[in-house]
């Protein structure tokens, strides 16, 4: 870790000290801007959607007899590798040219509605969203499991009391359940945030950063192991590290606080 | 207070109505969940079904039509004069426009590309080489002429045929043998098993020490471990790689990309989570047992092996599953520390290279992807309980 920090101040072979020039280069680089912009989008969209869907599914599934089966199925993508998931979704987004019959689900839907099919993953901006959907698809199961356990921790008496007072399902959900499990929601959110910062495989397998889908982790991989510029690669790693740092500090604090209560 | 009274009245007077209302709510819940679950399962189902389909069908129709008959156009070159036989004074050429394919069902045929549907099965079309041709619905044709055939180049017959749904394991056979996925499958196991076992062994000792032994800086070490949980492993890739390369140079090896190297790398990346999970679990074990064992004169090692390890089985199991899934599904570490040579490629790396080289051969990609995800899925479904428990215990990383 410290070595990476040191390397980020050196040139591409790691021998000559170059001061901050890697960082100056980085902040002037168009790809880096693109990656930062995309990463911010990822950080906003993926954790919120995954946590939101996870919460909804957890609440719905806990009330039904087949809820456990449903949860297993939603949870399943957690076991699938990012690369496997990429192939699965690449198939969904597949494009076959305007005339041919579409074998990708998305284009089949689009043509069914009478619109022209699109080569989805080459359309800037929307392609990033489509890649995010893959990660949401994977992470929702995680959010759901944690939140569903937290929901079971909400005391039955509280819910009962609310029901007797005439609160409807939505009131109970927003005014009682959400505040009670707020701490867990934050944990889930930050955990997915960390995953998002490190996400690399999906972009690498789907587009390799083409068509404006670059993210920091993939950019770093390119500079480190394709261009073999250890200095620049390291400086990107340091940027990722700095982004994670606040979460790390918060994590240690939380662990210490738990230690105190034990 | 008023609300309770109101409610009581509704219950008394309008019981059937409330009953219906509750049912509607329930129905909505069922429906909403069903839609969500379907959305989540749909992509994977598509992959699985596609991987089992005939590759010609896969390329022309969506997997959701797998159970229906799809129609396709085809062309076949039929026999030359050399194939003719003489029967009752007539000259006949026989054969099948589908070749050996028994899966198709003719719905029409013709002599030009523009009119593949000119004649219905069983009817005849006159040929410009002489005589007339009849094609029946199973594809077999009979070309009969009063005079002897003289053409040396077989004419083409265009046809429209329905392809009955067919499922096959051919794609899997092809991927496993011809595309080197079988080799990668073994590589993945070679990487994954030691990379799961080594960190567990190390972490169990460390976790016990951090949970039950008193020594200076214990709190600090725990804090460092918790902090390390979220450090992106990208931070340590380059230093570790150059370290490996230096060691390899010292021993005169070609490069630092060995299985031992990747085992140790995965061990290092997995250790913080392992220690954290196991320590939390062990610290929760009842204090009284430990203390009475101490009083009876048991050493730390004895307590660890005879009591703590067996009691910690659930935590050990959940971490093993984590580590197994993580290592099996990892792409980055494998690419950096094993490289991209064909002989050392793990499944994830193999799949990426297939995506690059065979990007449109979906029969290969779908089958390859399913082979990649089948092992984690088995582990996942058989040990889901421990996996969930582990997630709940250490919801970081």
Descriptive notes:
The complex is a heterodimer of chains A (262) and B (397). Chain A is mainly alpha-helical and 262 residues long. Chain A has a single domain (2-79, 127-261), classed as MetI-like fold (Orthogonal Bundle). Chain A is built from 13 helices and no strands. Chain A starts with a helix and ends with a helix. With 397 residues, chain B is of the alpha+beta class. Chain B contains 15 helices and 8 strands. In chain B, the strands form 2 sheets. Chain B has a 5-stranded antiparallel sheet with strand order 2-3-7-6-5, with no helix packed on it. In chain B, strands 1-8-4 form a 3-stranded antiparallel sheet, with no helix packed on it. Chain B is elongated. The two termini of chain B are 49 Å apart. At the A-B interface, helix 1, helix 3, helix 4, helix 5 and helix 7 of A face helix 1, helix 2, helix 3, helix 6 and helix 7 of B.
Write the layout of secondary structure elements.
The complex is a heterodimer of chains A (262) and B (397).
Chain A: H1 2-7, H2 21-28, H3 30-61, H4 67-75, H5 82-92, H6 105-112, H7 126-152, H8 156-164, H9 169-180, H10 182-198, H11 201-206, H12 216-226, H13 230-261
Helix pairs in contact in A: 2-13, 3-4, 3-7, 3-10, 4-7, 5-7, 7-10, 8-9, 10-13, 12-13
Chain B: H1 2-13, H2 15-52, H3 55-60, E1 70-77, E2 85-87, E3 90-96, E4 104-110, E5 124-126, E6 132-135, E7 140-145, E8 156-163, H4 170-178, H5 181-212, H6 218-228, H7 234-250, H8 259-283, H9 287-295, H10 300-311, H11 313-329, H12 332-338, H13 347-357, H14 362-382, H15 384-393
Antiparallel strand pairs in B: 1-8, 2-3, 3-7, 4-8, 5-6, 6-7
- Note poorly predicted spans of chain A: none
Biggest interface, which chains? A-B, 85 and 76 residues
Number of separate domains of chain B? 3
The radius of gyration over CA of chain A amounts to 22 Å
Mean pLDDT of chain A: 73
The class by helix and strand makeup of chain B works out as alpha+beta
Low-confidence stretches of chain B: 1-19
Chain oligomer state: heterodimer
* Annotated CATH homologous superfamily of the largest domain in chain B: MetI-like
Summarize the biggest pleated sheet of chain A: none
Distance between the termini of chain A: 32 Å
Q: What shape does the CA trace of chain A take?
A: flat
Q: Helix amount of chain A, in percent?
A: over 70%
Percentage of residues in DSSP E strands of chain B:
5-15%
Briefly note the CATH topology name of the largest domain in chain B: MetI-like fold
- Kindly state the mean pLDDT of chain B as a whole number? 74
- Whole-number tally of structural domains of chain A: 1
Strand coverage percent of chain A: under 5%
């Amino acid at each position: 870790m410290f070595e990476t920090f040191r390397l980020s101040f050196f040139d591409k072979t790691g021998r000559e000290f170059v001061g901050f020039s890697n960082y100056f280069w980085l902040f002037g680089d168009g790809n880096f801007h693109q990656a930062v912009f995309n990463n911010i989008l990822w950080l906003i969209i993926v954790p919120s959607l995954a946590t939101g869907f996870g919460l909804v599914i957890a609440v719905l599934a806990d009330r039904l007899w087949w809820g456990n089966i449903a949860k297993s199925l939603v949870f399943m993508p957690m076991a699938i590798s990012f690369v496997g998931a990429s192939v699965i979704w690449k198939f969904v987004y597949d494009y076959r040219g305007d005339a041919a019959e579409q074998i990708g689900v998305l284009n089949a839907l689009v043509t069914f509605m009478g619109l022209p099919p699109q080569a989805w993953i080459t359309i800037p901006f929307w392609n990033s969203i489509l890649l995010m959907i893959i990660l949401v698809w994977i992470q929702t199961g995680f959010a759901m499991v944690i939140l569903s356990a937290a929901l079971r921790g909400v005391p039955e008496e509280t819910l009962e009391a609310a029901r007797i007072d005439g609160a409807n399902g939505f009131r109970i959900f927003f005014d009682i359940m959400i505040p009670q499990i707020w701490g867990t929601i934050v944990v889930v959110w930050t955990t997915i945030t960390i995953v998002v910062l490190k996400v690399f495989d999906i972009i690498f397998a789907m587009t390799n950063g083409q068509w404006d889908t670059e993210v920091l982790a993939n950019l770093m991989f390119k500079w480190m192991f394709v261009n073999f510029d250890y200095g620049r690669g390291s400086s990107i790693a340091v940027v990722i590290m700095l982004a994670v740092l606040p979460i790390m500090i918060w994590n240690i604090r939380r662990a210490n606080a738990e230690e105190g209560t034990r | 207070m008023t609300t309770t009274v109101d409610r009581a009245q509704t219950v008394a007077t309008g019981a059937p109505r409330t009953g219906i209302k509750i049912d509607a709510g329930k129905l909505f819940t069922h429906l909403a969940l069903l839609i969500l679950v379907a959305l989540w399962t749909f992509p994977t189902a598509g992959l699985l079904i596609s991987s089992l389909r005939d590759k010609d069908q896969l390329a022309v129709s969506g997997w959701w039509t797998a159970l229906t008959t799809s129609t396709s156009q085809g062309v076949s070159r039929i026999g030359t004069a050399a194939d003719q036989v003489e029967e009752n004074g007539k000259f006949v050429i026989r054969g099948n426009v589908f070749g050996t394919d028994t899966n198709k069902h003719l719905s029409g045929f013709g002599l030009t590309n523009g009119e593949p549907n000119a004649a219905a099965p069983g009817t005849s079309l006159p040929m410009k080489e002489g005589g007339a041709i009849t094609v029946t619905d199973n594809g077999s044709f009979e070309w009969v002429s009063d005079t002897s055939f003289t053409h040396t180049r077989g004419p083409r017959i265009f046809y429209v045929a329905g392809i009955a749904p067919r499922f096959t394991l051919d794609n899997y056979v092809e991927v496993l043998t011809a595309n080197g996925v079988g080799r990668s499958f073994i590589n993945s196991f070679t990487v994954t098993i030691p990379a799961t076992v080594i960190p567990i062994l190390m972490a169990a000792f460390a976790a016990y020490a951090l949970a039950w032994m008193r020594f200076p800086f214990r709190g600090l070490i725990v804090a460092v471990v918790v902090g390390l949980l979220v450090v992106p492993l990208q931070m340590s890739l380059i230093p570790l790689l150059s370290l490996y390369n230096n060691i390899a140079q010292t021993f005169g090896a070609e490069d630092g990309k060995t299985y031992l190297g990747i085992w140790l790398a995965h061990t290092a990346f997995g250790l913080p989570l392992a220690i954290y999970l196991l320590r939390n679990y062990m610290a929760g074990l009842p204090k009284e047992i430990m203390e009475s064992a101490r009083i009876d004169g048991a050493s730390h090692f004895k307590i660890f092996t005879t009591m703590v390890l067996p009691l910690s089985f659930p935590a050990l199991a959940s971490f093993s599953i984590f580590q197994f899934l993580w290592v099996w599904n990892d792409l980055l570490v494998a690419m950096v520390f094993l490289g991209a040579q064909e002989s050392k490629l793990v499944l994830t790396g193999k799949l990426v290279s297939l995506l690059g080289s065979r990007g449109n051969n979906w029969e290969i990609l779908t089958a390859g992807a399913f082979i990649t995800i089948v092992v984690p899925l088995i582990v996942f479904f058989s040990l889901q309980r421990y996996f969930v428990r582990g997630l709940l215990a250490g919801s970081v990383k």
